[in-house]
């Protein structure tokens, strides 16, 4: 990889990190998953490999005669495949709740949604209709802009 490509990749990673650092709780999970996929990371594979590594650590702890620490058990429960439920009832309820939330989340429109004009064949639209369409388009653009303005500014 050339120095220029390396620098571009580093800049991209730093931008993504800055996005996450701003307020990671406000970023929707789907955006995080999308950002990971865009950078070439498969989130499901990462979760699967992380869970396998945690299982190995827990097995070593049991072999040494020590119980798995609470944080390790919690991490194992959090990374279980979707078709398995944690042994802890509270963790199982939390996982089921998160799973059900996927169905009840409100439909979110993309932030980059913009109105686009539909054109008809020439001659099907008279001048008055064209002016009215221009006015409606302008009103919609202003409405969208007002809705997305930062109230602090």
Short description:
The protein has helices at residues 3-22, 29-38, 43-63, 70-78, 89-104, 127-147.
Textual characterization of the structure:
It is a single chain. The chain is mainly alpha-helical. It folds into two domains: 3-104, no CATH class; 110-153. 63% of the residues lie in helices and 0% in strands. The protein has six helices and no strands. Helix 3 runs antiparallel to helix 4. 2% of the residues are buried.
Question: What's the helix and strand layout?
Answer:
Blueprint: H1 3-22, H2 29-38, H3 43-63, H4 70-78, H5 89-104, H6 127-147
Helix pairs in contact: 3-4
Which segments are poorly predicted (pLDDT under 50) over 5 or more consecutive residues? none
Q: What gyration radius follows from the Cα positions, in whole Å?
A: 25 Å
* Major beta-sheet overview: none
Helical amount: 55-70%
Question: What structural class do helix, strand and pairing data support?
Answer: mainly alpha
DSSP helical segment count: 6
Secondary-structure element series: HHHHHH
Strand residue content: under 5%
Q: Provide the residue-averaged pLDDT.
A: 79
């Amino acid at each position: 990889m050339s120095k220029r490509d390396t620098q571009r990749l580093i800049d991209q990673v730093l931008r993504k990190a800055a996005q996450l650092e701003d307020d990671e709780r406000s970023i929707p999970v789907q955006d995080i998953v999308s950002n990971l996929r865009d950078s070439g990371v498969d989130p499901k594979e990462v979760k699967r490999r992380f869970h396998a590594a945690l299982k190995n650590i827990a097995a070593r702890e049991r072999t040494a005669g020590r119980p798995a620490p609470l944080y390790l058990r919690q991490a194992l429960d959090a990374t279980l495949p979707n078709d398995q439920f944690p042994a802890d009832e509270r963790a199982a309820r939390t996982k089921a709740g998160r799973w059900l939330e996927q169905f009840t989340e409100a439909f979110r429109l993309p932030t980059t949604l913009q109105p686009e004009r539909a054109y008809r064949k020439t001659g099907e639209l008279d001048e008055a209709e064209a002016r009215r369409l221009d006015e409606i388009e302008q009103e919609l653009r202003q409405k969208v802009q007002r809705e997305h303005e930062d109230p602090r500014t």
